[in-house]
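QA checklist item 7 of 12: single-chain prediction sanity check.
[x] sequence parsed
[x] length recorded as 79
[x] structure emitted
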Amino acid sequence: MDINRAKEIAASPVMEDVKYNGKQVYIQHVDDTNETARIYPLTDPEQELEVPVRSLVEQSSTMGMEVDQVACRASLDGN
């Protein structure tokens, strides 16, 4: 995940579908200097972790990129 997107998600009141190691997490804070995020799994809020921002995956953005790629291929194929 891009650090700016992680900061947007952390500041937003809307819960995004973000995963770390396959588990849905909440981003509490993003550290610009170290490019890390303080997160916790939604199933275990007491288990806070400091992880590299690049290791976070936003599920909705991945799906959106896949849809865009399919649409791009379809238009290139003339469909």
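[x] summary fact logged: The beta strands are 18-20, 23-31, 36-41, 49-52, 57-58.
[ ] second reviewer sign-off
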